[in-house]
């Protein structure tokens, strides 16, 4: 069945089939010309873009030309070639994942996009420390509210455990998602000190989030 499907593909006149082979030949020729244009051939290992493009082109050649050729040889020369044929098909499916890496080639032709990616990587350290500070705030306020609101209806609903309190603070205090429900619950039980603590957390959390922007 896989070989029959292969023969159908080889004899197919669909646009996608021939376009794939055209681009495979085009990129393969481009890679050869880039290699021949180098004065020092050893420099190809220092050019990371050339190494990356070489990996993509070799994967494309393997998937488009070599794997189908190997399937035909196994089918015609070995009557018991089905297991090998199936293993080759699995490799071909894995090679299709390399198509996602071709999107990285856009970075070469879009300098602005490359600058944005470099800026995100450079800001990653500050973002990590900001998130760590936010987690510390969530943990500290969660411990305080879990202990102080124990035995109240608001505590049972929103601050039953430390982890549940962290979730409540993150949803209501950081994301400000329907925070009025929590405020109303505190007001109905006259938990004024807890309400002030909630406002303090919202202020600190907002300042922390703004530092990431």
From TrEMBL:
Gene3D superfamilies: 1.10.287.70, Voltage-gated potassium channels. Chain C (1.20.120.350). Keywords: Membrane, Transmembrane, Transmembrane helix. The chain crosses the membrane at residues 15-37, 49-74, 113-145, 157-176, 191-210. It is found in: Membrane. One of its GO terms (molecular function) is monoatomic ion channel activity. Residues 10-213 form the Ion transport domain. The keyword Membrane applies. It is a multi-pass membrane protein. Its main location: membrane. It comes from the Eukaryota. One of its GO terms (cellular component) is membrane. This is CACNA1H protein. The gene is CACNA1H.
């Amino acid at each position: 069945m896989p070989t029959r499907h292969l023969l159908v593909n080889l004899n197919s006149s669909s646009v996608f089939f021939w376009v794939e082979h055209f681009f495979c030949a085009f990129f393969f020729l481009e890679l050869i010309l880039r290699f021949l244009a180098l004065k020092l051939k050893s420099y190809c290992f220092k050019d990371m873009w050339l190494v990356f493009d070489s990996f993509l082109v070799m994967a494309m050649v393997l998937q488009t030309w070599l794997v189908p050729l190997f399937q035909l040889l196994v089918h015609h020369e070995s009557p018991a070639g089905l297991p090998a044929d199936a293993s080759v098909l699995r490799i071909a499916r894995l090679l299709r994942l390399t198509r996602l890496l071709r999107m990285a080639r856009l970075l070469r032709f879009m300098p602005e996009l490359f600058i944005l990616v470099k800026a995100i990587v450079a800001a990653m350290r500050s973002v990590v420390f900001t998130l760590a500070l936010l987690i510390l705030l969530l943990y500290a306020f969660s411990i305080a509210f879990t202990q102080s609101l124990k035995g109240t209806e608001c505590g049972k609903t929103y601050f039953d455990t430390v982890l549940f309190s962290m979730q409540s603070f993150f949803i209501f205090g950081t994301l400000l998602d329907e925070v009025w429900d929590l405020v109303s619950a505190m007001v109905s039980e006259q938990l004024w000190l807890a309400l002030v603590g909630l406002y303090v957390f919202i202020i600190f959390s907002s300042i922390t989030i703004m530092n990431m922007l």
